[in-house]
Amino acid sequence: MFAVIFKAKTGEQDSQYAEMVKVMRDLAFEKYGCLDFIAVTEGDQEIAISYWNAEEDIQNWHKDSQHSLAQQFGREKWYASYTVQVVEVKRQYSFNE
């Protein structure tokens, strides 16, 4: 399993941003096999973590034309800065799930 960790300092997040978040989330699940997608914002910091079965699925999602548009808007107005990390999950532990 793989995870994409998106950490950002937010910029101007308008109604178009909220709609794009929904589109990106739906696209990840419906077209590219995303397993889970969690996002949290605190002050001007945002972190989103998505989980995937295969690195190829992440790469295909990243190359999607709608995702490219979201990245463009992100750089132009929605984020002051961001970092993306793609990591392989070596182990997973759970309690009471």
Keywords:
97 residues, 4 strands, four-stranded antiparallel beta sheet, 42% helix
Describe this structure in words.
With 97 residues, this protein is of the alpha+beta class. Helices cover 42% and strands 35% of the residues. It is globular.
What does the average pLDDT come to? 93
SSE order: EHEEHHE
User: Count of DSSP E strands?
Assistant: 4
Helical content class? 40-55%
Cα distance spanning the termini? 18 Å
Shape: globular
Report on the biggest sheet.
4 strands, antiparallel
Strand order within the widest sheet? 2-3-1-4
Give the radius of gyration: 14 Å
In terms of quaternary structure, the protein is single chain
Structural class label: alpha+beta
| Annotation field: number of helices | 3
Low-confidence stretches: none
Approximate strand percentage: 35-45%
Indicate the topology.
Elements: E1 2-10, H1 15-32, E2 36-42, E3 45-52, H2 55-63, H3 65-78, E4 79-88
Antiparallel strand pairs: 1-3, 1-4, 2-3
Short description:
By secondary structure, the protein is α+β, with helices and mostly antiparallel strands. The protein has a four-stranded antiparallel β-sheet.
